[in-house]
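Following up on my earlier thread - several people asked me to post the actual chain instead of describing it. Fair enough. Here it is, all 437 residues.
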Amino acid sequence: MEWQLLLVLMLGGLGALLLMGLPVAFSFLVVTIFGAFTVLGGERGLVQLARNATQAVTNFQLAPIPLFILMGEILFQTGVAHRAIDAVDRVVTRIPGRLSVVTVFGGTIFAALSGSTIANTAMLGSTLLPGMLKKGYAPTMAMGPIMASGAIAMLIPPSALAVLVGSLTGISIAGLLLAGVLPALLLAALFVGWIVLRSITAPHLAPPEDQTPMTLGERWRPFLIYVLPLGSIFVVVIGSLLAGLATPTESAALGCVAAVVLGAIYRAIDWPRMRKALMETVKLSVMILFIIMTSQTFAQVLSFSGATNGVIRVIEGYELGSLGVLLGMIVILLLLGCFIDQVSMLMVTVPIFVPLANAAGIDPMILGVVYLLTMEIGLLTPPFGLLLFVMRGVAPPQIGIKTIYAAAMPYVIMKLLVLGIIVWWPAIATWLPTLLR
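Reply from S.P.:
Thanks for posting it. Predicted structure:
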């Protein structure tokens, strides 16, 4: 079978199965079984699929995924994160669009603790959105910062998807976890700047509010009690990586221990909450690992059929150069992000993009950050951005999906701006990882 036909059949079949509503994990399994049987030699191909699946799920490099998810679930289920948001609310004062700014600060803090964009957005939406709307904030001004800062969890460690990207692409997982820190902080700063500017130029979108007078102690005591100790988790995870004291798996385990200890200190952890955190971790981890099971065989099918080399030869024929190839990848990833989920984006493109990037001389760390940022943007792009539907679930019924789309658009533009800055000035992403060397 010609590689062009095989590529069309596999990618087209995958798209058709996803449109029919078959879960991502099973869609990839069906397509990979077809490819393995056709290209790798019938029964021998299926045996190879089983062998690859066993090797994939026993790969120690993937251990940080369930550990990072568990860390965030513990903080979410125990309510520790909600207390931190309330503490930030007390500290941020006398700034235009105050509650939207609180959302960005709180969302960035929780992103550094959870690693889950869905949990981050759902927590911010259920906690802050009702109060913002009640105080007269326009729906776009209220929902936009929630979705935008919720998505930052894709970049800031602990990010389970960063571990997945590193594992599938062969990029240093520790380096990739660190590479997202500065771009995430740059995004948060842009969000705050936009909110303040918009609130000044259009005050009706975020009406000034009368705050209850507080003493200095009343304002800062909750911050010292609930926010600073949470920062210790981030220090444990990132500090152990930077100091070379722990691998990503060990730092994730340390983060879980720190989350349990804090929950116990705050007397917020008990068996029912811990059980729920464990069950949610299992659900998400099994879904991700099931997809990873088929990834190696999927890549082998494309390689053995000649599809990978064929695509590389076609693109090299245009003599685009490394920048042109990278921009082409970005365009494809952004388009895919409008229609499929983030893990599917990885699975479809990694077998082709990684060899192509190597051939074009693209820095692997930049490719990894591009993946994370484009997947983050895909969470907010219509029509199927996942966080758009999460927001629809927590928003009042009278707020339509078009309003949610409009709320997300300015932040999508800012994320695209940061993506362009990283392509133009890669040091923003590569500086922290160089400290590991």
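The chain has a mean pLDDT of 83. That should answer part of your original question.
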